[in-house]
Amino acid sequence: MKPTFVLLLAGVALLGATGAVAADAGGSQSTWPHDDTTTNESNATTVSPGQQLAGAVGAQGAALQGELWNRTLADRLANATTPAERAAVVADETETLKSYLDALTGVRGNLTDAWADGELSEGEYRTSLAEFVVRARIVELRANQTARAATNLSVAVRERNGVNVTHVRNVSEQAHELYQFEGPIGREVVNETLTNESVRSPMPKLGERSA
Fold first, then answer.
1. Which domain holds residue 116?
2. Overall pTM surpassing 0.70 (yes/no)
3. Fewer CB atoms < 10 Å away: N or C end of the chain?
4. Count: domains in the chain
5. What is the pLDDT of residue 198?
């Protein structure tokens, strides 16, 4: 019997008001803002209706959680009354996003390795991948939101507060690359997940919430 696979999304944990992120490579709990543990245990070799439903529910839940998370940035920027305060928010967000990106990179590696090593059934892989795609997409969207806020700052303010628009845009590009897959199953899951209206609706569009 192949070993039970416990999906590692514990590497993505929001800690404290500063948005610091802790990655626990050996954990089994999934901690996103307002998130719960996600565990997949199955020896099935096909995608059962239950696994399809689990993937859809997991992706939709991640999208809703991400929308709540994204609102916090708009709130923080709205509460910043001076350019320097807004720059501080942008700088803090940039560091937070980099930490999330690092954690998600590790999650992708664990997930793809487990699939390649035969530790996951196709159903488990699809279910896990659908939620991962949404989480990476959310980081991409938040990085775009942060980049827009950065461009609204004057060059002088950005320089004084260590805000680099290029760095933020790089985070967005890297997050986008995280959910690009060469294999047919990966590409199919990405397409199905991001075209699913129940997943897309809660997620802010690239042009929304401009800071």
1. 42-200
2. no
3. N
4. 1
5. 53
- Residue predicted with more confidence, 197 or 110: 110
Among 169, 17, 136, 161, residue whose Cα is nearest residue 66: 136
Residue 56 within a domain: yes
Residue 37 lies inside a defined structural domain of this protein: no
Share of the chain above pLDDT 70, in %: 59
- Per-residue pLDDT reduced to its tens digit, 173-196: 999 999 999 999 999 999 998 887
Strand runs (DSSP E) across 40-113, as ranges? Answer: none
Domain presence at residue 207: no
DSSP for the chain, written as a single string: -PPP-----TT--EETTTTEE---TT-----STT----------SS--HHHHHHHHHHHHHHHHHHHHHHHHHHHHHHH--SHHHHHHHHHHHHHHHHHHHHHHHHHHHHHHHHHHTT-S-HHHHHHHHHHHHHHHHHHHHHHHHHHHHHHTS-HHHHHHTT--HHHHHHHHHHHHHHT--SSHHHHHHHHHHHT-HHHHTTSPPTTSS--
- Nearest CA to 45 out of 118, 110, 132 is that of 118
